[in-house]
Write a structure and sequence with these properties.
It is a single chain. By secondary structure, the protein is mostly helical. The chain has a domain of 146 residues. It has 18 helices and two strands. Strands 1-2 form a two-stranded parallel ribbon. It is globular and about 55 Å long. 49% of the residues are buried. It comes from Nocardiopsis terrae.
């Protein structure tokens, strides 16, 4: 299966997951050095550095959403400073998009987003999502052609369990950018059985996105996301039924058969024509997770060898600590992120 991928490995060197964890860097502030530098400046109190970055993204909906997400996480404790930028002459649409993402990041980071939280926590979580919705809707109003606010509003609606608003946001986002990665990512997640959807709906949406993705786009990786969401839901069900974590993990087994063949065809299609994309590292993690789960070691090794030191929460965090899960998989495959063969923002495919 792995004939068309190039990969290198030193089988004599034994790696341990715990050795690799410290080498991995979260991709939550992006994988582009300029964006990461901007996020660090924002975290240090320089909100204007973030505003300058967003100005440059208006013609690229993928980069705009990606940077708004990262800058939102960087400003999670500084939403007032972002809001104040408007008084200093910053573009209101850019600022409202960023503020919405900062408030959304704050809502998602709260423990109230989990399944085992109290009623009061849930109410606080919902209030935080409603707060994030206001600037995002204002951003959408001020820049009618921008898909980024709608992609974020879809996330808000998913968190609130508001099906009607979720459908509207999905329609609006894809009307402006039909192959928008975060819009499709949230679409697949929102249709998961654990959120009131069905496995059939979820896999149909993921399959359609993958089948219609432009040549060289990492969007086909959303099918791997659907498998991760499905397995996470099944694992939670087994745990609720009283099974131990070990039994639950063992019961799920591997991806196999037609599912793996389909993922292989999609990954091969992307690999053969990949273009640099801000979500390239995310796609490598999704495919890498899926092939590791399927026991396709060569394919998993190739994808995880292309991410460099960056680790994405999705899908690893579905099954534990993202850093620990990814490091363990890399160790099992003989991938050493300390060698840093990854390409950061691109696909890693030459």
């Amino acid at each position: 299966m792995a004939g068309m991928w190039r990969f290198g490995r030193n089988p004599a060197r034994v790696l341990r997951g715990t050795d690799l964890e410290t080498a991995l860097v979260s991709a939550s502030y992006g994988t582009d050095p300029l964006l990461r530098s901007g996020c660090e400046a924002v975290r240090g109190g320089d909100a204007e550095a973030g505003a300058a970055l967003l100005v440059e993204t208006r013609e690229d909906p993928e980069v705009r959403a990606y940077q708004a997400e990262a800058l939102g996480r960087a400003a999670v404790d500084r939403p007032d400073e972002v809001a104040a930028l408007v008084e200093g002459g910053a573009d209101p649409a850019d600022t409202m998009l960023w503020l919405g993402h900062a408030l959304l990041a704050r809502a998602v980071a709260a423990p109230a987003g989990g399944a085992d939280t109290t009623r009061a926590d849930r109410k606080a979580f919902e209030a935080a999502l409603h707060e994030a919705r206001v600037p995002l809707e204002e951003a959408a109003r001020r820049r009618p052609d921008d898909a980024a606010p709608w992609a974020a509003l879809q996330t808000v609606a998913m968190g609130l369990g508001d099906r009607e608003e979720r459908e509207r946001a999905w329609t609006e986002a894809t009307a402006r950018a039909p192959h928008h990665f975060p819009a499709h990512l949230t679409r697949v997640r929102s249709l998961a059985p654990s959120r009131g959807g069905s496995a059939e709906e979820m896999f149909a949406a993921a399959g359609a996105a993958a089948d219609t993705a432009p040549e060289g786009s990492p969007l086909s990786a959303v099918l791997a996301l659907a498998h991760a969401e499905y397995l996470r839901g099944e694992q939670r069900r087994l745990l609720r039924e009283g099974n131990s974590a070990y039994i639950a993990a063992m019961s799920l087994g591997r991806l196999h058969g037609e599912a793996v063949r389909e993922l292989f065809a999609l990954a091969r299609g992307w690999a053969s024509a990949a273009v640099p994309h801000v979500r390239g590292v995310q796609a490598h993690h999704l495919f890498g997770w899926a092939f590791h789960r399927a026991g396709e070691k060569d394919l998993a090794r190739w994808h995880l060898g292309a991410v460099g030191r960056y680790v994405c929460d999705i899908p690893w965090a579905f099954f534990g600590s993202a850093r620990a899960e990814a490091a363990l998989a890399m160790a099992e495959l003989g991938v050493d992120p300390r060698a840093d063969r990854g390409t950061g923002t691109g696909s890693g495919i030459g």
